[in-house]
Amino acid sequence: MTLPALQKGDAVGIVCLARKVSLEDIKDGIRLLEAWGLRVVLGQSIGAEDGYLGGPDELRRSDFQQMLDNPDIKAIFSARGGYGTTRILDQLDFSILQKNPKWVIGFSDVTALLCHLHTLGIESVHGTMPLLMGKPDTTEADESLRQILFHAPQRYSVAANPSNVPGTATGQVIGGNLILLNNIIGTASDVDYSGKILFLEDVGEYYYNVDRVLVHLRRLGRLQKLAGLIVGQFSDMNDTAVPFGKDVPQIILEHCGSYGHPICFDFPVGHVTRNLALVVGREATLQVNETGTTLHYENASF
C-alpha cells in the first residue's frame, strides 16, 4: 500500500527506539522538519536514559506504541540508531498501523523495524534521522527524504563503478544494515529475499565479518534468489592484525558475482552524510550499465 503524502501542518513524532538522545542533540533536525511545515511531537523517550538506552524498554515501547496508534501522527522518526530496537520489537502491536499505515523513518539499528514492517506489507523509509538532519553537509540526504515523504518524483543516478555487474532488475526494495539483517534471521522480522532488490550498508565492521555474514546468507540460499543487489557505503572498516586480504567489493563479488543479477557498488546509502532515502517494500527498477546506475520506483510520481 502506497502511504499518503505528508501535508504542511501534519504532526510527526520523534521517539528514541535505541541509543539515548537529548533534545539538544536533535534541535537541528526539529528545525528542519518545522521548516518543511510539519508540527513536531516529541515522545517521552527523548532525553530519557537507561544506561546506553533511551530509557527502559517499556518506556521506549509505550512511547512508540502511542505514536503508532495516534491517528493525528502522520509519520514517526526514530531520533537516532545505535542499539536497542530489537529489544522492544516483539512487544509492539501493529494492528492499528496495518489498518491505517503511516510513515516510519530510520536506518542503522532501525533496519530490524523496517524489515518487520515489510513482513506486514507496510512500506517504510530507510533514511536519515533527526540526530543527523539539518546540517550543512546533509542537505542532499535531507532533501531526498523530504521528496519521498511529500511524494515528489524520485529517481537516483549513480556514477559507474568498475566493480559493477551490469543488468536490469525490477522488484521490491529491501535491506539496510548488513549485521542487523543477519541478526533477524529466524525471527518474526525476517524477510523473504526472493525476487527482491537488496541494498546493504554497514559501519565500523571487520572485513572478515562481512565475509562471514555473506557466507551465512549464501548458505541459506538467499543471495542466489535476488533480483538485484545495491551495495551502499561500508564506512570506517576495520581489519585484523593478519589482514583479511579482500575489500568489500571483492568479498561481495566472490559471493554474489556469479548469480547473473545486476550489482551496483558505491550507492550513496549508509552511515555517511549523503545517505539517500529509500522506500523499503516498494517496487523499483535497477539499471546498471557502463555509463552508471539508475534506481527509480515504478510509481516514481507516487
Automatic annotation (TrEMBL):
Residues 12-127 form the LD-carboxypeptidase N-terminal domain. It holds the Pfam family Peptidase_S66C. GO terms for molecular function: carboxypeptidase activity; serine-type peptidase activity. One of its GO terms (biological process) is proteolysis. Residues 170-286 form the LD-carboxypeptidase C-terminal domain. It comes from the Bacteria. InterPro entries: Carboxypeptidase_A_C_sf, Class_I_gatase-like, LdcA_N, Peptidase_S66_N, Peptidase_S66C, S66_fam. Keywords: Carboxypeptidase, Hydrolase, Protease, Serine protease. The active site is at S108, E201, H271. Belongs to the peptidase S66 family. This is Peptidase S66. It comes from Rufibacter tibetensis. The lineage of its organism: Bacteria, Pseudomonadati, Bacteroidota, Cytophagia, Cytophagales.
